[in-house]
Amino acid sequence: MVLKGGVLITGANGGLGSAFVSKFIQSSFSSDYHGIYAVRNPKTATELEKVLEDGPKEHSYDLLPIDLSSLDSIRQTASSLNQRVASGSLPPIRALILNAAVMHTEKRVLTKDGFESHFGVNYLANFLFVLLVLGSMDKEHGRIVLVSTALHDSHHWMSRGTFPEGKREMFTRTEDVMRGGEDDDGTEKGRHDVGMRRYSVSKMLLVMFMYELQRRLDLDPVLSKISVFSLDPGGMGGAELTKRGSTASKFFWSNIMPAIQQTSVYFWPNGVLRTNDKSAVDLLAACFDEEKLEEYPKALFLNGSEISASSKESRDQEKQRQLWEGTLDLVKLEEGDTGLQNYK
User: Fold this and answer.
1) For residue 123, what are the CA distances in angstroms to 84, 204, 264?
2) In 3D, which of 47, 42, 26, 8 has the Cα closest to residue 254?
3) Which candidate in 37, 61, 199, 211 is catalytic?
4) What is the pLDDT of residues 53-94, one digit of tens each?
5) DSSP per-residue letters across 180-242
6) Residue of 23, 203, 225, 278 with catalytic role
7) Is 203 one of the annotated active-site residues of the chain?
8) What are phi and psi of 175, to 5 degrees?
9) Is the pTM for the entire model greater than 0.85?
10) 199 an active-site residue?
11) What is the rounded CA–CA span in Å between residue 240 and residue 99?
12) Is residue 266 classed exposed, middle or buried when 0-12, 13-18 and 19+ CB atoms within 10 A define those classes?
């Protein structure tokens, strides 16, 4: 059977990632599309392994090792992927889902390259990986989905506790956000609030990246049909991300919140609280739906299954440009590294 393309998702082990893989391999798309499931270490991806073992045996897939805290690992993985697509051993990527993320609310953590981890993993890694693999995308119907959050908006009611008056501007310079902004005050609440601000800022940068990337893709003679989305999956109990919070937070999100979310989704499908399964269905629709989203949707912010609007700051085109240029200085792309002609 000739496959129509590939579906690549990062953070495929646990939480939304595993839920998406489960929905995907049980869907009608799985027989036409090859799964590419990116994880830090395939040998320890036990949740993903179980999903695949319980799925259809005829589903074709690859496990893709990648360390998003290392720019060298990202480059190596992208190079291998590009070589396989060019040789025909992998089909072009129809859907590229950037789902993997970190949340550290107890201390400042750095990537292997010395960047603050929220900035380095949640934003910078995705920027570099996307630009490196653009040439391997399906040029006719390719879609890039950046998993974001309502917390990308410092004026959202859920963010106001960690973004008090006077601290709601999230981006001023790339040099500031790459270091994680201000230090905490040494208290548990201070560490938590600063960690949440860093997480939220990283997700806002991802939304800004969506707009600037789409603008540049639209002007590219080869890649102009590729669509870029941001999707807010809501708060999901039991998600892998919540395992890095406090002990009380981890217990609450893993053991109590899932039951609350089941009820919430029934009455308010796109509300603040959602299940992994519900958000996985929304993510699958973002990859393939051509009725509600049409064939070539561009720079959409999706709140679950509905088209919504991102924050005012994320839509600031001058800030988007500044962020793009500042990020290029950090990743040091060279000629031939990306299929995007006007990346500079």
Assistant:
1) 25, 9, 30
2) 47
3) 199
4) 999 989 999 999 999 999 999 999 999 999 999 999 999 999
5) TSSPP-SSHHHHHHHHHHHHHHHHHHHHHHHHHHHHHHHT-TTTTT-EEEEEE--EETT-GGG
6) 203
7) yes
8) -60, -30
9) yes
10) yes
11) 11
12) exposed
